[in-house]
Structure prediction request, 410 residues.
Amino acid sequence: MHRSGLALNNLRGVAVLMVVAFHSVAAYLGSQPVTPHPFDSPPYGWRAAPIIDVTRWFGFDFFCAFEFLYLMQLMFFLSGLFVWPSLSRKGGASFLRDRFLRLGVPFLFGAYLLMPLAYYPVYRVTALDPSWSVFWSHWLALPFWPSGPMWFLAFLLTLNVVAAGLYWLAPYSGEFLARLAAKVDSDPSRHCLGWVVISVVVYLPLAAMFAPWQWVAFGPFALQPGLAPQYVIYFFTGIAVGAHGLECGVLRSDGILARRWILWLVSALASFLLWMVPTAGIELGWADALPNLKLVADLGLVVFAASACFGLTAIFLRFAANDWSIFHKVSENAYGIYLFHYVFVIWTQYALLGVSLPAVVKGATVFAIALTLSWTATSTMCLFPIAKRLIRGQQRVALADVPRHETTLL
Prediction:
C-alpha cells in the first residue's frame, strides 16, 4: 500500500473511533436538559441524547461541538475516494451489487435488529412498565423507525447509487472530475476555498430554516436537512480526488497539503472560534443587539468543516503514513465497530446512571467498554465468511496499481 493510502486508512479508523467517543460522552454534556426526554412525545429528543446522566462536564460540550461540525463531512469525503476507480474497474452493475451487499444488508441488520436493542434502555428510563413487550408496543407506535447511526449507511448507499448513475450516463465524467482535482494540486487552499464557497451557497438558505442538529425521518431513513447537502458536496469531492489518484494528487504524502499541516490546524482552530463565539452570544441573548451573529456562526461552521477536514487529513499524511499494526487493526475492524458500538454505548450509559463517578471517568468507561465489546462482536461475526466479506471487504486493486485493500470508509 502506498503512503497516502496508509495515511488515509489510518485516518479512516480514527474517524470511527471519534464517532464512538462522541456517542460515549453525549450523556454527560453540561448543556443537556435536567430530566430525560419522554419516549412517546415529540420532538423525540432522545434520538440525539438517548441517555441523560445527572453527572456533567462542560469539557465534553466543547469536544462534541468540535466533532459534530466536521466529522460526518470527513467520513463522506473518505467514503468517496475509491468510488470512481471501483466503478471504472467493475462497471456499474457489479459496483452496485457490491454496495447493496456492503451497505444495504448491514443497514437492515443494524436498523431492524440492533437499534431496538440499543434504544430499549432509553424507554426503561421513563417507563411505568419496563417490560420488553410493552416497550415493543411503544416502539411500533412511534411515527418513524429510529435507526441511530445506521442513517449514515442508508445515505451513503444512496450517494453510491447516484455515482453509479452518473457513471452509466456519462462514463467519462470521471476524467472531468479528475481534471478539476488536478487544478488544485499546487495550492490546496484553492480546493478548500471551493469547498467553502459551494457549501456557503448551499448551506445558508437551509440554515435559515433548519438548525444543524435538526433531523427529519421517513420510516427507518433519517437525515439532517441543514447539513445533508454538505455531505453530498464532500462525498463528490472525494470522488473527484480519488478519480485523479492519491499519490499524484492533492493527497500526496509529500505534497504541499501535508507540508503545511500546521497552517491548516491553526485555520481549523480559528474557524472553530468563529463559530463558537457568535453561537455562545446567541445563547446569551446578544442576537437582538448584534443581528448578524447567526450569519457569522453559519459562515464559521462552513469554514471550520472544510479547514478541519483538510487539517486532519494533512496531519495524517504528514505523520501517519506508516503501516502501524494498531492503526491497521482498528481500520480493519472500523466498519464492525461502527455497526455495533451504539448498542454497547447506550447500555453502558444506562448501567452507570446510578453510579457515583466523575463525568470524565464515566465517559472514558463507556468508551472503553463500547470499543472493546463492539470490536469483540466484530471479530466474532467475522468468523463467518459472509459476515467477514460484508464487514472487512476483500482484496482489490489499488489506485496506483499497487496491491492493497481498497476500502471505502465503511
About this structure: The first strand starts at residue 216 and ends at 218. Strands lie at 216-218, 221-223.
